[in-house]
Protein backbone atom coordinates (compact mmCIF):
# COMPACT_ATOMS: atom_id res chain seq x y z
CA UNK A 1 0.00 0.00 0.00
CA UNK A 2 2.80 2.39 0.92
CA UNK A 3 4.65 1.63 -2.32
CA UNK A 4 1.50 2.41 -4.30
CA UNK A 5 1.13 5.73 -2.45
CA UNK A 6 4.74 6.63 -3.18
CA UNK A 7 4.18 5.88 -6.86
CA UNK A 8 1.13 8.16 -6.93
CA UNK A 9 3.06 10.96 -5.23
CA UNK A 10 5.93 10.65 -7.70
CA UNK A 11 3.53 10.72 -10.67
CA UNK A 12 1.81 13.77 -9.20
CA UNK A 13 5.18 15.46 -8.88
CA UNK A 14 5.98 14.75 -12.53
CA UNK A 15 2.58 16.12 -13.64
CA UNK A 16 3.02 19.25 -11.50
CA UNK A 17 6.37 20.02 -13.10
CA UNK A 18 5.48 18.94 -16.64
CA UNK A 19 6.58 22.31 -18.04
CA UNK A 20 10.18 21.77 -16.96
CA UNK A 21 13.08 22.39 -19.35
CA UNK A 22 15.19 19.43 -18.21
CA UNK A 23 17.56 17.93 -20.76
CA UNK A 24 19.61 14.76 -20.64
CA UNK A 25 22.79 15.24 -18.59
CA UNK A 26 21.64 18.44 -16.87
CA UNK A 27 20.99 18.50 -13.11
CA UNK A 28 19.49 22.03 -13.00
CA UNK A 29 17.54 24.01 -15.58
CA UNK A 30 15.13 26.94 -15.77
CA UNK A 31 11.49 25.89 -15.77
CA UNK A 32 10.60 29.52 -16.42
CA UNK A 33 12.05 32.98 -15.77
CA UNK A 34 11.81 32.62 -12.01
CA UNK A 35 11.79 28.89 -11.27
CA UNK A 36 14.64 26.34 -11.19
CA UNK A 37 14.03 22.69 -12.08
CA UNK A 38 15.98 19.93 -10.35
CA UNK A 39 16.59 17.27 -13.00
CA UNK A 40 17.77 13.70 -13.27
CA UNK A 41 20.49 12.79 -15.73
CA UNK A 42 17.76 11.23 -17.81
CA UNK A 43 16.05 14.60 -18.26
CA UNK A 44 13.26 14.04 -15.74
CA UNK A 45 12.30 16.84 -13.37
CA UNK A 46 12.19 15.64 -9.78
CA UNK A 47 11.72 18.97 -7.99
CA UNK A 48 11.47 22.73 -8.53
CA UNK A 49 11.88 25.91 -6.51
CA UNK A 50 11.49 29.65 -7.03
CA UNK A 51 14.69 31.69 -7.04
CA UNK A 52 13.31 34.35 -4.72
CA UNK A 53 12.46 31.67 -2.14
CA UNK A 54 16.20 31.06 -1.77
CA UNK A 55 17.52 34.61 -2.18
CA UNK A 56 15.22 37.59 -2.66
CA UNK A 57 18.00 39.56 -4.35
CA UNK A 58 18.41 36.86 -7.03
CA UNK A 59 14.84 36.36 -8.33
CA UNK A 60 15.55 35.40 -11.95
CA UNK A 61 16.53 32.03 -13.41
CA UNK A 62 19.21 32.30 -16.07
CA UNK A 63 19.44 30.31 -19.29
CA UNK A 64 19.79 26.51 -19.34
CA UNK A 65 22.07 26.38 -16.31
CA UNK A 66 19.39 26.96 -13.69
CA UNK A 67 21.42 29.66 -11.95
CA UNK A 68 19.56 32.40 -10.08
CA UNK A 69 20.62 35.96 -10.92
CA UNK A 70 19.68 39.52 -10.01
CA UNK A 71 18.57 40.53 -13.51
CA UNK A 72 16.61 38.75 -16.25
CA UNK A 73 18.33 37.56 -19.42
CA UNK A 74 17.29 36.74 -22.97
CA UNK A 75 13.61 36.17 -23.52
CA UNK A 76 12.95 36.80 -19.83
CA UNK A 77 13.71 40.49 -20.24
CA UNK A 78 10.36 42.27 -20.00
CA UNK A 79 9.97 45.90 -21.10
CA UNK A 80 9.37 48.36 -18.28
CA UNK A 81 5.84 49.74 -17.99
CA UNK A 82 7.47 53.17 -17.68
CA UNK A 83 9.03 52.90 -21.16
CA UNK A 84 6.47 53.44 -23.94
CA UNK A 85 9.37 53.75 -26.39
CA UNK A 86 12.94 52.51 -26.51
CA UNK A 87 16.06 54.69 -26.35
CA UNK A 88 14.38 57.79 -24.95
CA UNK A 89 13.63 59.50 -21.63
CA UNK A 90 10.26 59.96 -19.94
CA UNK A 91 8.94 61.55 -16.76
CA UNK A 92 8.69 59.50 -13.59
CA UNK A 93 4.91 59.42 -12.97
CA UNK A 94 5.29 59.61 -9.20
CA UNK A 95 8.25 61.97 -8.82
CA UNK A 96 8.86 65.15 -10.86
CA UNK A 97 12.39 65.36 -9.47
CA UNK A 98 13.29 62.20 -11.39
CA UNK A 99 13.08 60.89 -14.92
CA UNK A 100 13.17 57.48 -16.57
CA UNK A 101 15.90 56.61 -19.06
CA UNK A 102 14.80 53.76 -21.33
CA UNK A 103 17.42 51.68 -23.13
CA UNK A 104 17.13 49.82 -26.43
CA UNK A 105 15.32 46.95 -24.69
CA UNK A 106 12.94 49.29 -22.86
CA UNK A 107 14.65 48.65 -19.55
CA UNK A 108 14.13 51.58 -17.19
CA UNK A 109 16.77 53.42 -15.21
CA UNK A 110 15.60 56.03 -12.70
CA UNK A 111 17.73 59.17 -12.62
CA UNK A 112 17.37 62.04 -10.17
CA UNK A 113 17.68 65.66 -11.25
CA UNK A 114 20.52 67.59 -9.66
CA UNK A 115 20.51 69.89 -7.79
CA UNK A 116 17.33 69.16 -5.82
CA UNK A 117 15.72 72.42 -6.97
CA UNK A 118 15.54 71.05 -10.53
CA UNK A 119 12.64 69.14 -12.09
CA UNK A 120 12.35 67.09 -15.27
CA UNK A 121 11.33 68.94 -18.45
CA UNK A 122 10.08 66.53 -21.11
CA UNK A 123 10.19 69.11 -23.91
CA UNK A 124 13.98 69.29 -23.62
CA UNK A 125 14.53 65.77 -22.19
CA UNK A 126 16.54 67.38 -19.38
CA UNK A 127 16.18 68.95 -15.95
CA UNK A 128 15.42 72.62 -15.34
CA UNK A 129 15.11 74.98 -12.39
CA UNK A 130 11.73 74.73 -10.73
CA UNK A 131 10.21 78.21 -10.72
CA UNK A 132 6.49 77.60 -10.09
CA UNK A 133 4.37 74.78 -8.71
CA UNK A 134 3.16 74.06 -12.24
CA UNK A 135 6.67 72.97 -13.16
CA UNK A 136 6.17 69.85 -11.05
CA UNK A 137 3.56 67.38 -12.24
CA UNK A 138 3.28 63.97 -10.63
CA UNK A 139 0.69 61.36 -9.68
CA UNK A 140 0.56 59.44 -6.44
CA UNK A 141 -0.47 55.94 -7.53
CA UNK A 142 -0.51 54.83 -3.90
CA UNK A 143 -3.70 56.81 -3.28
CA UNK A 144 -6.86 54.71 -3.51
CA UNK A 145 -8.55 57.47 -5.52
CA UNK A 146 -5.90 57.16 -8.25
CA UNK A 147 -5.93 53.37 -8.62
CA UNK A 148 -7.03 52.11 -12.04
CA UNK A 149 -7.33 55.70 -13.19
CA UNK A 150 -5.92 57.56 -16.21
CA UNK A 151 -4.16 60.92 -15.85
CA UNK A 152 -3.04 63.13 -18.71
CA UNK A 153 0.51 64.47 -18.32
CA UNK A 154 -0.22 68.20 -18.37
CA UNK A 155 3.29 69.44 -19.40
CA UNK A 156 3.20 67.14 -22.47
CA UNK A 157 -0.36 65.91 -23.17
CA UNK A 158 0.81 63.35 -25.71
CA UNK A 159 1.74 61.34 -22.58
CA UNK A 160 -0.62 59.77 -20.06
CA UNK A 161 -0.20 57.74 -16.88
CA UNK A 162 -2.27 54.82 -15.65
CA UNK A 163 -2.14 53.71 -12.02
CA UNK A 164 -2.60 49.95 -12.26
CA UNK A 165 -3.37 47.90 -9.19
CA UNK A 166 -1.68 44.90 -10.82
CA UNK A 167 1.62 46.36 -12.06
CA UNK A 168 1.85 49.91 -10.67
CA UNK A 169 2.40 53.11 -12.69
CA UNK A 170 2.30 52.79 -16.49
CA UNK A 171 3.29 55.42 -19.08
CA UNK A 172 1.58 55.71 -22.47
CA UNK A 173 2.55 57.89 -25.43
CA UNK A 174 0.92 59.03 -28.66
CA UNK A 175 3.74 58.22 -31.04
CA UNK A 176 2.01 58.65 -34.40
CA UNK A 177 0.67 61.75 -36.10
CA UNK A 178 1.43 65.41 -35.54
CA UNK A 179 -0.33 67.31 -32.74
CA UNK A 180 -1.68 64.12 -31.18
CA UNK A 181 -2.70 64.15 -27.50
CA UNK A 182 -3.84 61.31 -25.27
CA UNK A 183 -7.53 61.52 -24.41
CA UNK A 184 -8.06 59.84 -21.03
CA UNK A 185 -11.83 59.60 -21.61
CA UNK A 186 -11.65 57.69 -24.91
CA UNK A 187 -8.30 56.13 -23.94
CA UNK A 188 -6.93 56.94 -27.37
CA UNK A 189 -4.83 59.47 -29.25
CA UNK A 190 -6.77 62.36 -30.78
CA UNK A 191 -5.95 65.66 -32.44
CA UNK A 192 -5.08 68.47 -30.04
CA UNK A 193 -4.89 72.14 -31.05
CA UNK A 194 -1.33 73.44 -30.67
CA UNK A 195 -2.56 77.01 -31.22
CA UNK A 196 -5.30 78.94 -32.99
CA UNK A 197 -5.44 78.38 -36.74
CA UNK A 198 -6.03 75.68 -39.33
CA UNK A 199 -4.26 72.33 -39.39
CA UNK A 200 -4.42 69.36 -41.80
CA UNK A 201 -6.36 66.19 -41.04
CA UNK A 202 -4.03 63.19 -41.46
CA UNK A 203 -4.96 60.87 -44.34
CA UNK A 204 -7.73 63.19 -45.58
CA UNK A 205 -6.60 66.11 -47.71
CA UNK A 206 -10.14 67.40 -48.16
CA UNK A 207 -10.53 68.36 -44.50
CA UNK A 208 -8.78 70.43 -41.88
CA UNK A 209 -9.05 71.28 -38.20
CA UNK A 210 -10.13 74.80 -37.28
CA UNK A 211 -8.75 75.66 -33.83
CA UNK A 212 -10.26 78.57 -31.90
CA UNK A 213 -10.75 79.65 -28.31
CA UNK A 214 -13.90 78.28 -26.75
CA UNK A 215 -15.34 78.43 -23.24
CA UNK A 216 -12.85 79.70 -20.63
CA UNK A 217 -10.32 80.31 -23.39
CA UNK A 218 -9.77 76.60 -24.04
CA UNK A 219 -8.69 75.72 -27.58
CA UNK A 220 -11.41 73.74 -29.37
CA UNK A 221 -10.92 71.75 -32.60
CA UNK A 222 -13.62 71.68 -35.25
CA UNK A 223 -13.20 69.40 -38.26
CA UNK A 224 -14.13 71.27 -41.45
CA UNK A 225 -14.61 69.90 -44.98
CA UNK A 226 -13.44 71.82 -48.02
CA UNK A 227 -15.96 72.49 -50.77
CA UNK A 228 -16.28 69.89 -53.52
CA UNK A 229 -13.20 69.74 -55.73
CA UNK A 230 -10.95 71.54 -53.24
CA UNK A 231 -8.21 70.23 -50.95
CA UNK A 232 -6.57 71.75 -47.92
CA UNK A 233 -3.14 73.31 -48.47
CA UNK A 234 -1.21 73.54 -45.15
CA UNK A 235 1.20 76.10 -46.60
CA UNK A 236 -1.71 78.46 -47.31
CA UNK A 237 -3.83 77.29 -44.37
CA UNK A 238 -6.75 77.27 -46.77
CA UNK A 239 -8.66 75.13 -49.25
CA UNK A 240 -7.56 75.40 -52.88
CA UNK A 241 -7.76 73.56 -56.19
CA UNK A 242 -5.79 70.32 -56.21
CA UNK A 243 -2.71 70.19 -58.42
CA UNK A 244 -3.80 69.09 -61.90
CA UNK A 245 -2.19 66.33 -63.91
CA UNK A 246 -3.62 67.42 -67.28
CA UNK A 247 -1.86 69.68 -69.79
CA UNK A 248 -4.96 71.49 -71.04
CA UNK A 249 -4.57 75.28 -70.45
CA UNK A 250 -8.14 75.56 -69.15
CA UNK A 251 -7.42 73.27 -66.20
CA UNK A 252 -3.71 73.82 -65.58
CA UNK A 253 -2.95 76.27 -62.79
CA UNK A 254 0.79 76.49 -63.38
CA UNK A 255 2.46 75.77 -66.71
CA UNK A 256 6.16 74.99 -66.92
CA UNK A 257 8.00 78.16 -67.84
CA UNK A 258 4.91 80.35 -67.47
CA UNK A 259 5.12 83.61 -65.55
CA UNK A 260 1.37 84.22 -65.52
CA UNK A 261 -0.32 83.72 -62.14
CA UNK A 262 -3.87 82.38 -62.11
CA UNK A 263 -6.31 84.27 -59.91
CA UNK A 264 -7.65 81.70 -57.46
CA UNK A 265 -9.48 84.13 -55.19
CA UNK A 266 -12.87 82.61 -55.99
CA UNK A 267 -11.54 79.09 -55.46
CA UNK A 268 -10.56 79.51 -51.84
CA UNK A 269 -13.07 78.84 -49.12
CA UNK A 270 -14.34 81.36 -46.66
CA UNK A 271 -13.42 80.97 -42.99
CA UNK A 272 -15.55 78.35 -41.26
CA UNK A 273 -17.65 79.30 -38.29
CA UNK A 274 -16.36 77.73 -35.06
CA UNK A 275 -18.28 76.65 -32.03
CA UNK A 276 -17.44 76.77 -28.35
CA UNK A 277 -18.51 73.20 -27.77
CA UNK A 278 -15.90 70.93 -26.26
CA UNK A 279 -16.85 68.25 -28.80
CA UNK A 280 -15.38 68.60 -32.27
CA UNK A 281 -17.96 68.93 -35.04
CA UNK A 282 -17.69 68.62 -38.79
CA UNK A 283 -18.93 71.16 -41.31
CA UNK A 284 -18.43 72.08 -44.95
CA UNK A 285 -17.13 75.45 -46.13
CA UNK A 286 -18.61 77.43 -48.99
CA UNK A 287 -16.85 78.38 -52.16
UniProtKB/TrEMBL annotation:
<feature type="compositionally biased region" description="Low complexity">
    <location>
        <begin position="264"/>
        <end position="287"/>
    </location>
</feature>
<feature type="region of interest" description="Disordered">
    <location>
        <begin position="262"/>
        <end position="287"/>
    </location>
</feature>
<dbReference type="Pfam" id="PF01607">
    <property type="entry name" value="CBM_14"/>
</dbReference>
<dbReference type="InterPro" id="IPR036508">
    <property type="entry name" value="Chitin-bd_dom_sf"/>
</dbReference>
<dbReference type="InterPro" id="IPR002557">
    <property type="entry name" value="Chitin-bd_dom"/>
</dbReference>
<keyword id="KW-0732">Signal</keyword>
<feature type="signal peptide">
    <location>
        <begin position="1"/>
        <end position="20"/>
    </location>
</feature>
<feature type="domain" description="Chitin-binding type-2">
    <location>
        <begin position="80"/>
        <end position="138"/>
    </location>
</feature>
<protein>
    <recommendedName>
        <fullName>Chitin-binding type-2 domain-containing protein</fullName>
    </recommendedName>
</protein>
<feature type="domain" description="Chitin-binding type-2">
    <location>
        <begin position="190"/>
        <end position="249"/>
    </location>
</feature>
